[in-house]
Amino acid sequence: MDLKGKVVVVTGGGNGIGEALCRRFAAEAPEALVVLDLEQENAERVAAETGGLAYGVDVTDEAALKAVLADVETRFGRIDLLFSNAGIGVFEGPEGFLGPEGNNDAFEKSWAVNVMAHVYGARAVLPGMLARGEGYICSTASAAGLLNQIGSASYGTTKHAAIGFAENIAITYGDRGIKVSVLCPQAVRTRMIGDTDGGSAGQDGILSPEAVAECTVQGIGSEKFLILPHEEVLIYSQRKASDYDRWLQGMQRFRRSLMEQ
Ligand SMILES: NC(=O)c1ccc[n+]([C@@H]2O[C@H](COP(=O)([O-])OP(=O)(O)OC[C@H]3O[C@@H](n4cnc5c(N)ncnc54)[C@H](O)[C@@H]3O)[C@@H](O)[C@H]2O)c1
User: Fold this and answer.
1) 113: Cβ below 6 Å to ligand 1?
2) Residue 202's pLDDT is what?
3) What is the pLDDT of residue 260?
4) CATH topology of domain 7-230
5) FRET partner for 231 with CA separation of 20 to 30 A, picked from 22, 67, 213, 217?
6) Residue 87 beta carbon below 6 angstroms from any ligand 1 atom
7) What is the pLDDT at residue 259?
């Protein structure tokens, strides 16, 4: 999809990857850029700097998200791209999900933001897209949705589910004009991983949000399902698929090495 002249909505657009997506999308001259975030001030800041429109909304509140998306459709006549990017991570200690951070609250909150918000968003925008015979739904999952997450069972589990949902809507609505992509980066320099000041910039593999946004615009341009800013994720996924047990042993070794640091 060429974003020029399109109506684009980004959730979690007030910070990190979502903020970088908004800035990069703005450079493509969309008709409208709509920035949604729980943190309304940040949504307003990003909207003001990108010529967009801001809404403060909790994407886990289906009625509230539906009302915001309906308001956008009323103002601009349609939504061409919904980018469900808002997400959270709850990280556990060495005990894994048996430790205090692996409680039901961590799973339920992560499920609500990382999965159900994608369901609510798609449910709100798909009827209009299907009526027009075109539309694009993109979500930010993670490489953790393909390769799991050492240190967070709730994150690894919900990000797999996010990819499963995206695959399902691609299968179900793809032949009616709906394009679907999932963005699956490894580490990105944002507050989610406690690094916004470039303190780990030299560390292997950490990308800037801007680099991820650039890769995403290219991925949307070519309408690829999997958008992988870290190209090695494709190789790791292929190795996992070709020998699951060997992959698990490698991950166990990797986990031990991280826990010993
Ligand atoms: N940073 C990484 O290393 C990394 C790697 C892979 C995937 N991701 C994913 O990228 C996405 C963006 O994360 P980020 O790293 O930019 O983190 P971030 O914390 O900087 O940004 C997340 C944004 O989502 C918003 N948000 C959270 N819960 C919300 C809710 N209920 N309703 C509305 N907005 C909400 C936050 O206010 C924040 O602005 C997430 O889905 C995350 O899981 C991050």
Assistant:
1) yes
2) 45
3) 82
4) Rossmann fold (3.40.50)
5) 22
6) yes
7) 85
